[in-house]
TrEMBL record:
Entry's transmembrane regions: none
Organism, as annotated: Ktedonobacter racemifer DSM 44963
Keywords, sorted A to Z: Isomerase
GO MF term list: carbohydrate derivative binding; isomerase activity
NCBIfam families: PRK02947.1
InterPro entries: RpiR-like_SIS, SIS_dom, SIS_dom_sf, SIS_GmhA/DiaA_subfam
Name listed for the protein in its UniProt record: Sugar isomerase (SIS)
GO biological process: carbohydrate derivative metabolic process
Keyword set includes DNA repair: no
Organism superkingdom: Bacteria
PROSITE patterns (alphabetical): SIS
Amino acid sequence: MSQQREVNDASTGVSMERYWQEAMRSVTRLQQTQMEGLREAARLCAACLARGGVIHTYGTGHSRAFAMELAGRAGGLVPVNRLDLEDLALRAGWSPEVVMHPDIERDLQAGKELLGCYHIEPEDLFLICSNSGGNAAIVEVAQQVKQRGHTLLAVTSLAHTHQSPARHPSGKKLYELADLVIDNQAPFGDALLALPDGSTACAISSVTGALIAQMLTAGIIALLLEQGLEAPVYLSANVPGGMERNNRLVQYYADRIRPV
C-alpha cells in the first residue's frame, strides 16, 4: 500500500516532501523580499501601542486564521483586537444564518456595519489580511478605515490579487487602499502542488500568514523594549500566574479588545 502511494506521489508531483520544498521556497522569498516592509509594519504598530492605541486585525474566510494568530493567544500582544463578521450577529442584530453563510465575505453591507461593533479610538491602527484582497466586505472595511484617518496595513497575495476580479463597487482592492502592503508569497489560487487534471492542492497562505504574524509580534515587542516600555504579552492560562497576569493587562484596555 505504501509503495503504491509513493508511485502515485511521484506521478502527480504530490508528496509531503514536495510540499515542504515548495513551502520553504515561499518562506525564503518572504524573507528575501518582505523584510523591509515587515520592519516598517512593526515600527508603525509599536508606535501605535506606545501612544495607547490598539491594533485591530481582520480577515475573512481562511484569513481569519491570520487574525487569530495575532489576537488573544499565548505569547501574543494583549492590545490586539480581532474583528470578525460573526460579531454582526452578536453585536449588531444580524441573523446568525446570514452571518454564517459562506458568501458573507462578499456582502457589502456587512463591511459597512462591521466597524460599528467595536470601540475604536483615533490612535488605533488596522491590519487586514486577505489572500485575494477583492471581496466586498474586506474592501469596504479597508475603505472605511482610511476614511476615518487610520493607518492601514495589508497582508495579501499580490500574485493572486492582480489576477482576480474586484468585487467592491469602487473597483478597488485591499492593496490599493493600504498604507503598507506585505506580500504573503502565495501563488494565484493559493495552492502549491500541481495535480494531473491541471488543478492544484496544498495551500501556503496560512503558513506564511502565521509566520508574518509572529515575525510582526517579535518586531513590535523588540521595539517596545528598546524604548523601555512594557511588552503587554499574554501568558498561557495553563502556566502558574498566567490568568492573573492576563486579567490585569486585559482590564487596562477594557472594552477595546475582544475578551479571550
